[in-house]
């Protein structure tokens, strides 16, 4: 079967380039003195018994990141970024991830800690590995790249070929061919992307290393050399067929050369459904795990996106070429792999001519597939590196080690990469285009060990699952725990007021208008009283104007114009004196109380209001489109009107220390400041907020109360509050990162509501760890 012909003759080019991708990345937690961290795996992470993404490999100090399988390489890298963020922020503050495949400063071999968690089989298996290969070799880390073709492509090929009777037979042959040819030619990838040219001298004093001669110069890849972590020499597996592959591994287990099937560490490992190889004979190969890739210490993820794209292109070419590698060709390829690993990274490859021929073949395939110029550029860059070895990754790493020293080079990069993940703790890199509350929820769900699927990125729609529990969440806190009608009730401020008034809660009086003319006709109704003009159905303070003194008719009309731009119905309400507080009610409890100070600037006696706004907007906690905990202060019509009420303009220069307010409404989303008031608030008002939520039959809501004095308890005779709004999908980011006070991570409360048992398990785990 000539796969290239089938693809070209049946217009399968596009399907051929599709696939499913996953990346596993190992690393070492490192202490401030560049030594292997002796601390426990971060206790805030969910149990490694069930965690889908953040595990440990051999050592307790060797975290392993496992991305979920994704239908595009770009999405896989999104996940790789996000998981790095979670891991970095979960680690001890003074620890960092060692960016190199070869280890940091290791203690004596007996002191390297094997994983510590409640799984006797896992510990027993790792102890066997330590006895068989030595602990220091176990600390070598790398990238595993998982790949499969799309089901649609396999089905398309199956329908157009006549060689195989079942789709499983075809699927097995595709993955066997991919694996065999990869093992024949993977030395080419090692030349380009090998990145472990050196190891600290302490590494060689290991159980196995004492028998080997330490390199006298830099090499391309210690990890893939005889110093690396490989099965013993007698373990050679046949890739002629899936049947021979399975039988060989089972035989090595029976004869004691392998303790169990998973101890086979071939560079191309066939994977089926479940852990049993025998099952793979029934259900077929599902994907291939490629295991020979060094960590790229120059990239914060350990692998660059360009690398990933080249690997994918290489996998396609392994299928595109007509022949499948024979057993002897695989053995020859593995010899070339070892030779390439041992080469000086600044020297031309011994297999330069063959490599250039392969790259020409890849270029021809790219043209046949009509792929874009970016793929051609990847190949052209690879061709250049076979003429200029100094441009290869290993040579560049060796140059930096020579210049800075091994420890300094890796430490500086490790700290730089950690800083990237921690400098904006409210952002989940990889998903930073999603609204902030969703990013916070995703982060906390990942940390807890909940499986996360992004169902609709543009709509911020997530699927969360753990064992047999599945929950869907939109915009961070819209869940199945609330009814659809409750959202419509809160969206309609008139309906909200009526329900609350009937339930006995205090709400402001006012009128509802459907046109500017109608509202103007009722202007005299509000004579000599302060008012609020706002759209009927908006959130985040959009379109609201507040007049603490009776406005003239021109200002009143301007406020109506602003409000009617946002809705076809506008409310004019009495202004209630006092301070506005946001009560975040979550599952019949107040999770946080926030005092929101309206958008303002403080004069310095020399800067204009325009300049003061620009300076305040430079705060990294401020941003646009709800992508930061606080919003930029705007310079729009509402702000202009507010300044006019104070006889000011944007060009005015306030005296030093004078506070100038740009808004009357105190929404964080319109530039306000946030002050946590959870502990200060009298408990009676918490009870009011919870009661309002119950009256609206809602589990998650933001209740806005005007309270003249929060220290005076609310009583039936003197309620001391007025409810001006109840918000569905209330922002959580403004509680998490505040201008003053303690941040409240409400997303954890959302997860507790959805997965109460899992949260309790994590709590117990933390308590046990702290004993």
Beta strand count:
24
The number of helices is 26
Query: What would you say the CATH architecture of the domain at 3-423 is?
Result: 2-Layer Sandwich
Structural classification: alpha+beta
* Uncertain stretches of 5 or more adjacent residues: none
Description:
By secondary structure, the chain is α+β, with helices and mostly antiparallel strands. The protein has a domain at 3-423: 2-Layer Sandwich (Creatine Kinase, Chain A, domain 2), CATH 3.30.590. Helix content is 39%, strand content 15%. The strands form seven sheets. The chain has a six-stranded antiparallel sheet.
Descriptive terms for the model:
771 residues; alpha+beta; EC 6.3.2.2; Creatine Kinase, Chain A, domain 2; nucleotide-binding; Glutathione biosynthesis bifunctional protein GshAB; multifunctional enzyme; five-stranded antiparallel sheet; Gln_synth/guanido_kin_cat_dom
Q: Can you lay out the helices and strands and say which pair or pack?
A:
Blueprint: H1 3-9, H2 13-16, E1 20-26, E2 28-30, E3 54-56, E4 63-66, H3 73-90, E5 96-98, H4 120-133, H5 135-138, E6 142-148, H6 151-160, H7 167-193, H8 242-254, E7 268-271, H9 277-283, E8 287-294, H10 305-320, H11 327-342, H12 352-368, H13 373-387, H14 393-404, H15 406-422, H16 436-448, E9 451-456, E10 461-466, E11 469-474, H17 484-491, H18 493-502, E12 510-513, H19 516-521, E13 531-535, E14 545-547, H20 553-564, E15 570-574, E16 579-586, E17 589-597, E18 600-602, H21 609-616, E19 622-623, E20 630-631, H22 637-645, E21 659-661, E22 673-676, H23 683-695, E23 700-707, E24 722-727, H24 733-736, H25 746-754, H26 756-770
Helix pairs in contact: 3-15, 3-16, 7-10, 7-11, 8-9, 12-13, 14-15, 16-25, 25-26
